[in-house]
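#lab-general

N.A. 3:47 PM
ok so I finally got the sequence cleaned up, no stray characters, all 339 residues accounted for. can someone with queue access submit it? mine expired

B.Y. 3:52 PM
send it over

N.A. 3:53 PM
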Amino acid sequence: MHTLYYKDMRLSIFAIIFAFTFILPGMAFAQFTSGTGSTASFTLSSEPQYPAPYSQVTLTALSNSLDLTRATMVVTVAGNEIYQGNIQPTTVAVGGAGKLVNVKVTISLDGTSYSQVLLIQPQDVALVAEPISSEPPLYPGKPLVPLGGDVRIVAMADLRDNNGKEIDPTTYSYAWTVDGTRATSASGIGKDAMIVASPLQYRARTVSVVVMNPDGSLVGGDSLSLSPFEPSVQIYKNDPLLGILYDHALSGNYTITGAESTLYAAPFSFPITSGAPTLQWFLNGEAAQTGDSITLRPTGSGQGNASLSLVASTGSYITATANLPLSFGTVANSNLFGL
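B.Y. 4:20 PM
back already:
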């Protein structure tokens, strides 16, 4: 009768952190009025508040004193008319970082004209999310926001004036906001990064930043939303020639066809602020060993079956399990091409 033993083989686990960029920079930074009629008769709102270079801004006219349903509107950009007709949201294209766009909106009603002029100056600001979570070495995927962990957020800003001249980035001031609340301790000159706690399960967390030059004349911003992922652990074959075969996580029944087989455990999305998760292997329900690898070696003759399970944990409440039924004692096919 075949018997299945294991021997210890350990591999180290490091977290690989990739940055994922969400770009929504710039802002419509100045507004003034001109023309005939009451200059306070209507206002303009712009969306997004911080437009990206070479993006589009949607302008919407609002008024508490004018009946805009009966009015007409003319929109000009740098003196060129881009829209004429009924009152409706209008999109305006912006140029490169720092390039001013002069937009004039004129509303006419009952023979009277009302005008507003809006200056839009996009700036290049991007937030990068770096989840502090487990990921196996050389894994081609990306780390995920860990449940019960932390995420490092980095602001990458490039503020420029209307001539395209870059402002010294060491002089930028950063105003951080988390879920609508100002993060005062994380804000200030040169504070281009902060660490935020992951949101609760099934919740989301919004992080935003506003970046300014020293005199506040150039302003840009960005925001992103974080959602946590439940941790998981996968088992992969560790081939003696090819290494860890990340392209196929083992599931269902796994057959050991050689003299031994080494399996590797990869925990995903576990918080690693306090260290890597603990990995415990079980063979036929009994604790076998700890660590990220286990080598199984059938002995004796005949065929047999066994159950292998793995528990990954951080603390007392963040856990994930993987189960793998085993078959052994089968003669391996000697054909190189598996035919």
